[in-house]
Design brief:
Elements: H1 2-21, H2 28-52, H3 55-83, H4 88-104, H5 108-111, E1 115-117, E2 120-122, H6 128-131, H7 133-160, H8 171-195, H9 202-226, H10 236-242, H11 245-265, H12 275-282, H13 286-297, H14 301-317, H15 327-334, H16 339-350, H17 354-360
Antiparallel strand pairs: 1-2
Helix pairs in contact: 1-2, 1-9, 2-3, 3-4, 3-7, 7-8, 8-9, 11-13, 12-13, 14-15
C-alpha cells in the first residue's frame, strides 16, 4: 500500500511539473512552486525506491526522502513571499536555516542507531535528549506556514485599500495551502508521539501520511497550473511598464469614460449589474472594459461599482431630506444587496464603520 501511494504521488508530481513547465508565462512565485513540486517528486520517488531496495541502499534512500521533506515548508514560504512581493533576499535569509537542515538529516545515523521500516526511519532505543530532536525540528518547520498565513493577512489588508472584492486575489486557496501544511506537520508530530508507544503499526502511519500529502499536491498543483503566482491581481506599476504608451493613454481615457457613464446613468444602483452588462451598455467588448479597468484605472469591476455606491450613499446622507434616513436604507437604494456587503465595503473605503462616519459628518 505504501509503495502504491508513493508511486501515485510521484506520478502526480511529474504530471503537474510537466504542465507547469509548459505555461507560457512564469513569474517568481511559479518558479518556487515548481521547486516545491520537484521536492515532492524527489520525496515520493526516493521513498518508493527505498521500499524496493534492501540494506544500506534502502536506508540511504529513506534519508534522501526525509531530506526532501524538510525542504517543502521553506519552499512554500518562499512561494508565498514571492507572490506578495516581499524582498527576495530577506525571504531567502529566513528560509536558509531549514534548507540547510536538509543536510542535517544525514547526521541522524551518527547520533542514534536507526533502522528502516515501511518507508520510515525507526529507532528502537535512543538517548532521552535525542527524543526531543524530531518534534523540535517539526515545530521549527511549523513556523514557515504560520509565517505564510501572517504574510497573506498583511497582504489582504493592503489589498483592501484598493479592492472591495478580494475574491479575485485568490487568497482563500492560498490560506488553505498553508493550513494544510500545518495539518500535515501536526499529524507528523502526533505520529511521532504515538510511535513511542508502538500501539499503531508504522505502515498505517505512513499510508495515511502519503495519502494526505498526495491530496495536498493535487490541490496545490491544480491551482498552480490554472493560475499565475496564485494572485491574479494586476499591479498598476507592472501594467504601466509592460504597456505601450498609446495603449496606456487610451485605457485611461476609456476608464474616465466608464466613470462618467456609470455616474451619469447611476448604473451602479442596479444590484444585479455585471461586467458583461456594463460592457454591453457602453457598446464595448468585455476585453476593452477589462483593459480600461485594469490598465486605465488599476482596479476591477467590483471595486469600481462599490466605490461609486459608497459615493452615492455619502452624497445622499448629506441631503436635507435624508437626515433621518438610515445609511443602510440609502445603501440598498445605491445598489448594495446586503448589510454585510455594505459594511465591509464602507470600512474598506472609509476606514471606519458607517455609524462612526455619520456621527463625524452629522450637521451641526
Amino acid at each position: 500500500m505504501i509503495a502504491a501511494f508513493a508511486g501515485a504521488g510521484g506520478a502526480l508530481c511529474a504530471l503537474l511539473l510537466a504542465l507547469m513547465a509548459s505555461k507560457p508565462k512564469r513569474a517568481l512565485g511559479d518558479v518556487w512552486l515548481l521547486a516545491w513540486l520537484a521536492a515532492y517528486l524527489f520525496y515520493f520517488a526516493t521513498l518508493g525506491l527505498s521500499l524496493a531496495s534492501a540494506g544500506w541502499s534502502a536506508f540511504a534512500l529513506s534519508l534522501a526522502a526525509q531530506s526532501a521533506a524538510v525542504a517543502l515548508a521553506p519552499l512554500q514560504y518562499l512561494h508565498g513571499r514571492a507572490v506578495t512581493a516581499a524582498p527576495l533576499r530577506e525571504s531567502l535569509a529566513w528560509a536558509a536555516p531549514a534548507l540547510i537542515g536538509m543536510g542535517a538529516v544525514w547526521l541522524l545515523p551518527v547520533l542514534a542507531p536507526l533502522r528502516f521500516e515501511s518507508g520510515a526511519l525507526v529507532a528502537d532505543a535512543i538517548p532521552l535528549w535525542l527524543a526531543f530532536l524530531p518534534p523540535a525540528a517539526l515545530l521549527a518547520t511549523l513556523a514557515y506556514p504560520v509565517a505564510v498565513l501572517r504574510e497573506l493577512a498583511a497582504y489582504r489588508r493592503r489589498l483592501k485599500r484598493r479592492l472591495s472584492n478580494l475574491h479575485v486575489a485568490g487568497l482563500s486557496w492560498a490560506r488553505l495551502w498553508a493550513v494544510s501544511t500545518i495539518g500535515l506537520i501536526l499529524f507528523q508530530l502526533a505520529v511521532f508521539g504515538i510511535s513511542l508507544s508502538g500501539f499503531v503499526p508504522v505502515a498505517i502511519h505512513m499510508s495515511i501520511l502519503l495519502a494526505a500529502q498526495s491530496l495536498q499536491v493535487a490541490f496545490v498543483g491544480y491551482h498552480g497550473v490554472t493560475r499565475t503566482q496564485i494572485f491574479h491581481l494586476a499591479r498598476a506599476d507592472e501594467a504601466e511598464r509592460t504597456a505601450d504608451a498609446r495603449d496606456l493613454t487610451a485605457a485611461r481615457a476609456d476608464f474616465a469614460h466608464v466613470e462618467r457613464f456609470i455616474a451619469e446613468r447611476e448604473s451602479y444602483r442596479d444590484a444585479e449589474l455585471t461586467a458583461p452588462a456594463l460592457a454591453e451598455a457602453l457598446g464595448w467588448g468585455q476585453d476593452r472594459l477589462a483593459t480600461a479597468l485594469r490598465l486605465g484605472g488599476a482596479t476591477n469591476f467590483h471595486d469600481l461599482v462599490n466605490r461609486a455606491r459608497i459615493a452615492h450613499v455619502k452624497r445622499a446622507a448629506g441631503q436635507a431630506e435624508n437626515v433621518r434616513e438610515g445609511l443602510l436604507a440609502l445603501a440598498f437604494d445605491a445598489g448594495f444587496g446586503s448589510k454585510s456587503a455594505f459594511y465591509e465595503v464602507f470600512r474598506s473605503v472609509e476606514g471606519m464603520t458607517p455609524a462612526r462616519w455619520r456621527k463625524q459628518n452629522a450637521p451641526d
